[in-house]
Design a protein that fits this description.
The structure is a single chain. The chain contains 17 helices and 14 strands. The chain is of the alpha/beta class. The chain folds into 2 domains: about 5-220, 3-Layer(aba) Sandwich (Rossmann fold); about 235-430, Nucleotidyltransferase, domain 5. An 8-stranded mixed sheet has the order 3-4-5-2-6-7-1-8, with helices on both faces.
Amino acid sequence: MIKLLPKQEHAVWYLNDDITNELLYGGAAGGGKSALGCMWLIEQCQKYAGSRWLMGRSKLKTLKETTLNTFFDISAKLGVSDQFTYNEKDSAIYWHNGSEIILKDLFLYPSDKNFDSLGSLEITGAFIDECNQIVYKAWQIVKSRIRYKLNEFGLMPKMMGSCNPAKNWVYSKFYHPSRKKELPSNRKFIQALPTDNPNLPKSYLQSLLELDENSKQRLYYGNWEYDDDPASLIDFKKINDIFSNKFVLGGERFITADIARFGRDKTVIGVWDSFRLIKIVEFEKNKVTEAAAKIEELCEYYQVPMSNVVVDDDGVGGGVVDILGCNGFVNNSRPLDNPETKEPENYMNLKSQMYYALAKLVNDSGLYIDCEDGGIRDIIIQEMEQIKQHNMDKDGKKQVLPKDLVKELLGRSPDYADMIMMRMWFEYRFKFQFSVG
């Protein structure tokens, strides 16, 4: 017999209601998150004979060494170990009543970016342990596969994930909206801390307190806002300051724009008064001609000459550049030379060079964003936190995290950060040099 912790009981309520189809449980170490997921799978397999469930984690090897062992321990305590057979070769648990639990590797491999390995998989529900270690697309693909015998059992699609604090999609999709009381009704988040679990040895709690500061804040205190990643280019406090740096002086005006088309990412346009971002316009869906027309309208209203407009020239943004005759920003083009020395700088591409320059500006308290919309503020903060050095342990040219990787971490494109980053192009192209280290 296993007695559930109060927060586990709370989670079970959501796992059995008719509203919730995505539950995130955890937010620290030792809160009983893996045990809860295993108990849920066991209950469902027993209750719905012939059902099929997924137990997933970033790497199958880790899943078998951790979550699967928790499953065996829970099964023994519940006295149901004789009701199933584990097949190592199939990576599956076969229940005698016909139910199955399929173990899956959900890592994003370069050879399988669309998770085609999941193929035509049909499942009744899913538990993904440490889902903060997978990308949001994997979560979405698994969710799309939940349809097996749902009508027969009278069930709705349900999936549960466990996690530790991480500044990626689990933060933006679950934790942050929950904290702001803006979480959609179909999603629920329950934070469980090690101190919630009276069954943990005191020595384990002490070991968590002896971890490095970053790990201790995340795994013991469940602090989602603490991020001491050495790869980060911008101090978190300085990111928050950009909305209160009203002392930043105005001057020459510019417009920067990151263009998207028909719902693919977002079109985000910014109007600048020197390093004061004074206006942000966004489109969820738009034609290239509509984006061009909006930029022309902003140029006229704010008196910005076309030579002071730069637009992302990759993809459909090139169409806007052609229509307006403005400057085009090509992310993967070579870095610009140092305006003072006329010497090349050691960056992988133009985008990386401009992001390093932006990081220097923000850390020096040189950027102000005039934005009263709390939702947009939060998005900008999250995207600016992902401005990190890529492959920092390797020698060679400096590079920031590639956009595709940032999209996977955030669960969306960093459109606002890209729009802000392009402001630095004018400082290299026409003005003076920032020292970017």
